[in-house]
C-alpha cells in the first residue's frame, strides 16, 4: 500500500465526502480515480454488483436507483441511477447518498433498511431480510 500526502483542506473535503456517502477516505479517492480514469478503475470488487446478493431498488424524488444488497457485508452496490457503480458499507449509507445526490438541500439521514425495496415484485422492504 502506498502513501499520498495532501493538504489539510483537501483531506477535510475527502473526509466530508466519506461521511456523506458512508465510505472511507480511501474509498472516496478510489471512486474519484475510477470516475476520472475508468481504464485504471478500482478493483472489480469495488466497481460493480456483487455476485451473490439480492436486487433492491429505491424510488426517490422521481428517480429510480437499483442495486444489489450483499447479505454477508450488508453493503449495497448501486447498479443503476445517478450513482451507478457506487458501493456503500450499509443500506443507510447508500440511502443517504441517494438523498444527497437528488436533494442536497434536505437532511439526508435515512434508515436504509426501510428506504430500499427488494426487487422481486413483492414490495417488501429490505428490512424484511434482517429477521432471517
UniProtKB/TrEMBL annotation:
This is Uncharacterized protein.
Amino acid at each position: 500500500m502506498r502513501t499520498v500526502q495532501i493538504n489539510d483542506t483537501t483531506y477535510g473535503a475527502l473526509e466530508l465526502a466519506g461521511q456523506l456517502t458512508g465510505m472511507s477516505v480511501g474509498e472516496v479517492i478510489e471512486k474519484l480515480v475510477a470516475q476520472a480514469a475508468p481504464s485504471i478503475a478500482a478493483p472489480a470488487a469495488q466497481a460493480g454488483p456483487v455476485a451473490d446478493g439480492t436486487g433492491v431498488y429505491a424510488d426517490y424524488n422521481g428517480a429510480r436507483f437499483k442495486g444489489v444488497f450483499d447479505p454477508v457485508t450488508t453493503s449495497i452496490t448501486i447498479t443503476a441511477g445517478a450513482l451507478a457503480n457506487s458501493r456503500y458499507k450499509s443500506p443507510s449509507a447508500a440511502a443517504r447518498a441517494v438523498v444527497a445526490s437528488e436533494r442536497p438541500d434536505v437532511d439526508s439521514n435515512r434508515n436504509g433498511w426501510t428506504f430500499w425495496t427488494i426487487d422481486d415484485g413483492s414490495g417488501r422492504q429490505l428490512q424484511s431480510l434482517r429477521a432471517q
